[in-house]
Amino acid sequence: MMHILIVEDEIGIIQFLKQGLEEEGYKITFATDGLQGFELIQKEKFDLILLDWMLPKMTGLKPCKAVRLKDNSTPIIFLTAKDTLQETIEGLKAGANDYIRKPFGFDELTERIITISTI
Questions:
Q1: Of 82, 74, 20, 2, which is closest to residue 42 (Cα–Cα)?
Q2: Strands in the chain per DSSP E
Q3: How many CB atoms lie within 10 A of CB 31?
Q4: CATH number of the domain enclosing 53
Q5: Domains contained in the chain, number
Q6: Residue 101 forms beta bridges with which residues?
Q7: What is the span of the domain harbouring residue 24?
């Protein structure tokens, strides 16, 4: 079973993602701020990380970079309202494999999870 970490500060989005992804057969762990996400990444191994950029206590860039320093193989998808070309490039340079702008469709997310986990 694929274990996914969701790092997101909007509880409604966490609940939506958690319920939908669990129904798809994924195991879900979540954090509600960047620091908590960073600490979980240091302690556990995840098969995929869904990471918001604009988080309390620490932006999503630091946990993303931490994953790349620790383990270069864990796929990371940014889920964010940041939408300029420069921000997309910055997120990818930080180590993200993919970048989905909010709002997004659940079907789009699951297709990207399937695609990224088979690479």
A1: 74
A2: 3-7, 27-31, 48-51, 76-80, 98-101
A3: 23
A4: 3.40.50.2300
A5: 1
A6: 80
A7: 3-117
